[in-house]
Amino acid sequence: MARLGLGVMEENEEENVHSLARKLSDVSCDSQGPLVSSYNDRIRPLLDAVDELRRLKVMQEGIQLPTIVVVGDQSSGKSSVLESLAGISLPRGQGICTRVPLIMRLQNLPHHLLQPELHLEFHGKTIPTDEAHVSEAINLATDEIAGDGKGISQTPLTLVVKKNGVPDLTMVDLPGITRVPVHGQPQDIYEQISNIIMEYIKPEESIILNVLSATVDFPTCESIRMSQQVDKTGQRTLAVVTKADKAPEGLFEKVTSDDVNIGLGYVCVRNRIGEESYNEARMEEARLFEAHPLLARIDKSMVGIPVLAQRLVHVQAMIISKCLPDIVKKINDKLNANLSELNRMPRHISSVAEAMTAYVQVIGLSKESLKKILMRGEFDEYPDDEEMHCTARLAELLDNYSKQLRKSTVVDGTEGNFLMEEIKVLEETKGIWLPNFVPRSAFLAVLQKKVNKISDTPVELIAKVWNYIEKVVTEVLMHHCENYPQLHSSTRRAAQSLVAKMKDKSTERMLEMVEMEKLTDYTCDRDYMTLWSKLMENNNAFTEIMNDYSEPTTLGIEGFGEIEVGHVRAFSKDIRDQAFDMKMRITAYWEIVLKRLVDSMALHLLLSVRNLVGKDMEVEMVVEVMSPDHGGGIERMLEESPSVAKKRERLQKSVKLLKDSQNVIAVIMDKIVINAD
After folding, report:
1. In sequence order, what are the residues at sequence separation of 6 or more whose Cβ sits closer than 8 angstroms to the Cβ of residue 100?
2. Known Gene3D superfamilies for this protein (predicted)?
3. Residue 28: its pLDDT value, please?
4. pLDDT (average), residues 35-60
5. What is the pLDDT of residue 212?
6. Strand pairing of 266-268 and 117-122?
7. How confident is the model at residue 43 (pLDDT cuts 50, 70, 90)?
8. Is the pLDDT of residue 396 over 90?
9. Which one, of 478, 473, 480, lies nearest residue 500 by Cα?
10. Measured CA angle at 125 (ends 121, 127), to 5 deg
């Protein structure tokens, strides 16, 4: 059979897992054997696989395993139940006996003549023991893990019991819940125990075996309260009621009314007393539930350690059948993701030549990204970050610039203002020449005043555009050299230095454009004559208003709206006509000036961005990194940063663990197929 690959499993392998899971869910329990389930050769290996995955600590990768978790309040009889299931003695005493999570792996040995095999696993070592000394061995191991005081630890201890007559089960026994610390226990003992319990019972893959004492009211049990927090419907909670012989009164009503939502049902048991052997204890238990007038009312499917063993085996089969395919898929998915992330990391650099090659690659990738977002308008690398959709953002800045230019030079058509600026300039520029000529100096004086009014706007746009481009360039560069933190500061400096130079050039260029517009009045754009001619069509209406005092004193001109012109009658005809003509010429020519300022800005920015991405950025970055003033950035690439080294080590460990996990499942699948053949 082919091993599980590094990618998603092949269809036939996936079907094998689902098929085995279906068979496992159909397993029945043998009611004849006292504690032994009828697991066949296909099923026992799957439980071994889950146990091996737990030993490998695959849960550290966020992959939860199907687990029967044993919880109960202190002195609820939890240890007695586990002793009866395993047929061995566990530590007893005052206070908390279980101070670490105890993973109990029970495995039935089919032949009664075989000697039991017991051993402990913790801290990467295996300690053999036997039935006579297992309790002492657990205590010694617990002291080594949690200290020899009365504190607790989250580090688990595994007890493996291979013995004829025990059920094939794996359970995790957790410390008993206590609210009041005794001498030697930490003051926050309750919080520590609660945290451990919640960590184990919260996953949906966990089955909660809640051990309750018949001597208490179930709703008051702290273990019930905790299990209800994570399993409100009780669908993954099974309750075992101990000490039935101590408090038989009302027990039938407790387990049949189910006031605390135990979805998987109740099993009532009798604890072993004194020096009773386990066989004697089972016989006494059967006699108790058969003959006691109150306990005999409880259905036989709800009483006895054998029934509990069978129920647990069945529940375990169900949870493994439900989770196994998903576990295999999660292992594969997690492994693929970690391998991809590991492959994306830079290989460890060992020479200056390799460092230079890597740095050139960073520059190349950065240039390609910037070409896409700054020049071609492609933003597939940043689909959800609108700030990185650069062509759209730059177009918005340019549109706002155009609107701001027009807004700052809106024609003032309020009462008493129309033509007054032109008349004043004409009065101040008149000379000894023919009176019907408009002095060019007058036109330039008005033009220069308008240009001065908007002269700061282009410079403000330049600052906004290059601040934005600096942010974008820095973001892209930092992204592509994120695995080389040694280069971050020099790369950021290079971006800032380059953009500052480009910004200065652009500012100088725009100031030059403004000065050129103030210098002279020139255009070859035919739109100037077209618009001037159209505006001059209003001259006759203006003249009529000036000459006929019976006419209204308002005039409608496109681009000006309805304007008041009555105040202009106070001036001579020659000055009025010259002022009107100059006003229309200025208006027509100003449209050309505004378009020129916007178009020149757009073309300049496009050229500047192309130069930045095409050549200037690469030169600036190489100079900055190679500069001896900054510690030799290329040489620093030879020193892998602690964060990158730590990440690489973490991913390598994770990949090894997940590959081992894949191999565990593959080996188990091979065994099952061989047994089937």
Report:
1. 142, 145, 146, 152, 153, 154, 155, 156, 157, 175
2. Dynamin, middle domain, P-loop containing nucleotide triphosphate hydrolases
3. 42
4. 72
5. 93
6. unpaired
7. low
8. yes
9. 473
10. 60
